[in-house]
Amino acid sequence: MTPVELSRTVLHAVRRAVDEGELAVAVLPERVVVAPPGPGGCGDYATNVALQLARPAGQPAPAVAELLRARLLRTDGISDVVVTGPGFLNISLAGDADGRLVRDILRAGPRYGHTDDLAGQAPQLHAAPEVRALVLMDTVARVLRSQGARPQLHCARPPQDAWVRTLGVPGDLTVGTGTDDPLRPVPAPADPTPLGRDAARWALLHPAPHDRPHIGDSRSEQHLAQRETNPLFRVRYAHARTRALLRNAADLGFTPEPGPVTPHAEALLHLLADHPRVLTATAAHRAPDRLARHLVAVADALAPLLPSVLPLGDEKPSAAHRARLALAEAAGTVLAGGLTLLGIDAPEHL
């Protein structure tokens, strides 16, 4: 069960409770957010839906949580549900949850986290006629499309040819003033095109829109540096390492096979499970920096796993090696998909 499927399962339980008169809620949430448990939580995923429903239902949040807990425990694929704190539902999935998550990612490929939740919506995006605003708008549009929307792009003036040619800014946007979602980040302090497409887009997107990007100053060259202090390099290097591991494993005669992995991979698994929620939040808040920071976190959590993926010396490939290889491939898949949404290349060799 993927996070998206679990979200729908919880929402279905809420709707059934309302339909059968156990909850009196006039307006149901459109979606339920599930995420890895926070401090004090347990299980594979947690949700605060009971706290959201408590006031409109006129019941204490723990009572709403217990009501939903009873329904979720009767659902295939869920092994346990624990209520913690003021009313959080902590959900444990049945069987090999880690292997199931990895299989779901590998099955979806770079489209892992894509949904049709915004199908039928056509948000009007308007960018100031400035390079950072246009790159931001292009990236927001990419993420919105990944969630099923069909955004319409507007700008008061056509983009410069260099921005279209070098940075991938869409040249077919509507010239004119849009009515919704004005995107006005802090402007780029200098021309980013000398950095090239990948580094320039990262330099413009990685900082939050209200932060000043480091372009044209003494720190500008860091975006091109092939070292660990450059977060773009860490993300792309981590992806390239996963591809190299798959090639090396093939030479050794074994392939990835999802299964249980060592406990130190728990942080990485939680980040991979959180990827669909990050895409949803990025689209909702028009904030590609959330996706960029998430990719850095995935790359950093992946790094400790990489040395243990391949057998050492005369060691024979084991089920643990195959499971770690599958997890590395899944992480690389998430990194590649995320970079693509940012309009940045994910090379197999670096």
From TrEMBL:
Annotated coiled-coil segments of the chain: none
The DALR anticodon binding domain, residue ranges: 235-350
Domain Arginyl tRNA synthetase N-terminal, residue spans: 4-93
Catalytic reactions of this protein: tRNA(Arg) + L-arginine + ATP = L-arginyl-tRNA(Arg) + AMP + diphosphate
Keywords: ATP-binding, Ligase, Nucleotide-binding
Cited NCBIfam families: ArgS_rel_codon
EC number assigned by the record: 6.1.1.19
Protein's UniProt name: arginine--tRNA ligase
